[in-house]
Structure formats: C-alpha cells, structure tokens
Amino acid sequence: MVVGMENNTHKLVVIVASVREGRFGPVAASWLAEQAESHGGFDVDVVDLADVEIPLSLPAASPKYAGDDYPRPAGMRPLTTALESADAFVVVTPEYNHSYPASLKSAIDWHFTQWTAKPVAFVSYGGAAGGRHAVLHLENVLTELHAVTIRDGLAFPNYFTAWKDGRPLDPETPGYAKTLLDQLAWWAGALKSAREATPYPA
Fold first, then answer.
1. How far apart are CA 4 and CA 91, in angstroms?
2. What angle do CA 191, 185, 82 make, to 5 degrees?
C-alpha cells in the first residue's frame, strides 16, 4: 500500500504548460491523465494554462508572505484552487529555446505555498533533447518553492514522429509512465502525511 493512501486517492493536477497555437501539450496531457486514472492512485484534474488569465506583471507583495491576501486576478481563481487542493503535480511542458514557456513561469510566480512540500513530475517533449533542458530549469525553480521533484519523468524527443492518433508509438511508454506514477503516488502519500502531522518549516 502506498504510504498515506488507505483506500483513497491523491488529487493529481496535470498542468498543460504551453499556450502556443497548434501546441502538442493537450495531446500528451490527455494521454498521461488516462494513464493516471488507470493507475488507481489518483483523482485527476487537467489544468490548461491557455484557459487561465495569467498576467506577466506581478503585484509588489510576494505571494510567500501575502498568503490568502495576495491580489490575484479573478480569472486565475480556478488555477489557484486547483494548485491549493493538489497532492501532486505533473507538468507537461515543451522546450522553447532550451527552456520552458513563459506561461508556465508566470503561473508559478503567481503562487508559492501551493507548491510547498508537494511532489512534481514532468512530461516533456521537443526536438532531439525531448524537452529535457526545460525540465532541468524547472527542477531548480520548483526546488526554490520547496516542492519535491520526481526523478523518473517522461521525455519525448521528436514527438512529431513519435506519436500517432494521440498515443506514443513506443510500446514501452506505458511502463515508463507507471514508474513515474508509482513514485509520484508514494511521494504524494508520504508528503501529505508529513504535512498533516507537522507544518512544513518553510
């Protein structure tokens, strides 16, 4: 049994990071959400940043210290609520110029405590590197927010030839996804139990 599960599931938020026209992100996110639902350890919610109001300009106050009083736009409320309620995250991201999209950085910067002491896994895609440069940068950013990043992610090099009809062509990919989800469920249970037992000393 996964630590802390006891016949219930963990709230998993799958974040579609790209807002670019014609993006591949929703395809990968839909498939990953399907794998997570089949896994049995998660209650899955897909959040598409293209549907969220995310201004580039930020208030003067830090969300770390402002807490519930942080003045977010009304259109951001569904994202904030989803992040608050999540026990775990999967970020589905492309690689733009060896990093991740500005839309994702803005969504991260508008929040702080919502990520604290929660696990984050990555599904990346791109050209030859499969989005790994983006993930390396995200690991640094999310560590600063006291999140726990999962080592075993999914990367899809040359995704435009590696998928067909909304599914990856490599028959071993579902097995890799299971490894990601098993680790994510373990960390989700362990960290949820820890947060409930003792407030995190951020």
1. 23
2. 75
Encode the chain (202 residues) as per-residue pLDDT tens digits: 333 444 479 999 999 999 999 999 999 999 999 999 999 999 999 999 999 999 999 999 999 899 888 999 999 999 999 999 999 999 999 999 999 999 999 999 999 999 999 999 999 999 999 999 999 999 999 999 999 999 999 999 999 999 999 999 999 999 999 999 999 999 999 999 999 999 999 7
Tell me, letter by letter, the H, E, C secondary structure of the chain.
CCCCCCCCCEEEEEEECCCCCCCCHHHHHHHHHHHHHHHCCEEEEEEEHHHCCCCCCCCCCCHHHHHHHCCCCHHHHHHHHHHHHCCEEEEEEECECCECCHHHHHHHHCCCHHHCCCEEEEEEEECCCCCHHHHHHHHHHHHHCCCEECCCCEEEECHHHHEECCEECCCCHHHHHHHHHHHHHHHHHHHHHHHHHCCCCC
What is the rounded CA–CA span in Å between residue 16 and residue 19?
Answer: 8
The Cα–Cα gap between 176 and 22 comes to 26
Other C-beta atoms within 10 Å of 93: how many? Answer: 27
CB contact at 8 A, 49 and 16: yes
Q: Is 92 exposed, middle or buried (0-12, 13-18, 19+ CB in 10 A)?
A: buried
